[in-house]
Amino acid sequence: MNRSQIKMMRYLPLLCLLILCNCKGDDTIPEVQIVDEEMYFPPTNSNVWDTKTIESLQWNTTAAEDLYTYLSDNGTRAFIVLEDGKIVIEKYWGTTIQGNSLFNETSNWYWASAGKTLTACLVGIAQQEGLLDINNKTSTYLGANWTSLPSEKEDLITLKHQLTMTTGLDYTVSSPDCTDPECLQYLADAGTQWYYHNAPYTLLESVVSNAAGVSYNDFTDQNIELQTGMDGTWLPLGDNNVYWSTARDAARFGLLLLNKGTWNTTPVLSDASYFNAMTNSSQTLNPSYGYLCWLNGKSSIVFPSDTSNYPISLAPNAPSDLYAAMGKNGQFIDVVPSKNLVVIRMGEAPDGDLVPVNFHNTMWEKITNMIE
């Protein structure tokens, strides 16, 4: 068996649990300073990870305790803070998803839509390898009639529209996660409408697999996991494909993002133009969105399951250069280049929001109280 098959066997009990429980998984930068040349990267072949203490950074320990209480009271399972790549905070609460043991550094949890940003990186890698071009129409990789649109409308949709949530497909259909052609109906021309629509995103996985000629798990393993030491896996759940990993794996991905697609000295997503486009406003309809990536510090935002544009930023209490992979029930991979920080939060839903932005903003209020 290859590495991906071995991992799938390891995750099989979890997959069975998900099927039985019918749990729901997916929802569903401006130019910044160069990363410190002394950035630390944990080894890829072990779980060893260098640490720093809160005291050595002169952070506020009383504020840290207030932060921990807030996280614990709001369903958090895992919380990690990296500074210059080293672990400053690593906390776990509660039990595993199966409920049969305490949650710890080896426990797996779902990324939900935070996995979208991982997909954005994989699309970029596929493009830099010459396997695809995001400016090509989607039918180049999925074939004609992948939607129920007239051909002249279907041909307007490119991979870039899928990356930016601007396909124009009808999000009011009965199942917005459904990727069957009959579920993919016309509402507006591509590029003229922004809506957080899962189905067009999910199809990017088929685009990459078709272009590369390997499974999506194998492509992830070969092009990101092996280089960074990540050891997660994509598991099917209904119409979605959800990434699962430990919190430390999520932190490794955050560190890769912080270092602009390079792991230590190993280029992973080496296309700087693509990375910059991914982590900056990708269109004007929702300036707080890049390529499947949320951006702070912008003048307005359109939230998931909403069509209104609000004159606020993603997280006013966080540094303005923060960008994030964000998922249902509060799965966060936050990257702050100006402070060389990566912040991971995994856990249950703290409130009823699809993506709990109010919780996220309060979390950052408490983090700011701690570090400043």
TrEMBL record:
**Which residues does UniProt assign to the signal peptide?**
1-25
Decide whether keyword Signal is in the record.
yes
Limits of the Beta-lactamase-related domain: 78-346
Gene3D superfamilies tied to this protein: DD-peptidase/beta-lactamase superfamily
Please provide the record's keywords in A-Z order: Signal
InterPro entries associated with the record: Beta-lactam-related, Beta-lactam/transpept-like, Diverse_Enzym_Activities
- An example of a Pfam family matching this protein is Beta-lactamase
PANTHER family according to UniProt? BETA-LACTAMASE-RELATED (PTHR43283), BETA-LACTAMASE-RELATED DOMAIN-CONTAINING PROTEIN (PTHR43283:SF7)
> What's the protein here called?
CubicO group peptidase, beta-lactamase class C family
- Which organism is this entry from? Ulvibacter litoralis
